[in-house]
């Protein structure tokens, strides 16, 4: 867990430039692998989704295809565990790639654009429960949200690399040079929140890579708020 630097007064974060989730950006998680021959169309689609202001698009590379001849250089067992947790929450019998999880709720084959867009539009119409505000302060980020519906929420901090190209030499995609967008490098729970009091915390966020904060029902439930600082 990324360490909390301080619990702040809600009024103490009003200075400096802020990024607010005023329009309720929809979080799209793509579970993908460099070793998956059916993933490149979904990876390309994520490039397009990453350009939208109303979407936070995140690529989580899983490790369960590494055995077929190519070890994914971005894969993290933590992301495989997260995908399995979504499957358990949805009573799904298995996991697969490419899979997009939209808003923490909708599970869609990531190479089917119409299904992805239908789910995205549905989540956009529904909107987020909470507006999240992020403020950079040195090597940390300040996270605030106005209270609303009570519940059991996790506050998660995500870092990602905006783009990287990989020359794949073995496995199903051998000989291809593929470009990946918004490659998640870390995903940490930085706090819990009941939604009834103002949320105000500060967390470590060193470096200049983008920062995403996601509020989500515990046990991989719906995402109820998110914001991004690029």
Automatic annotation (TrEMBL):
InterPro entries: DUF1223, Thioredoxin-like_sf. The keyword Acyltransferase does not apply. Residues 1-21 form the signal peptide. Pfam families: DUF1223. It comes from the Bacteria. Keywords: Signal. This is Secreted protein.
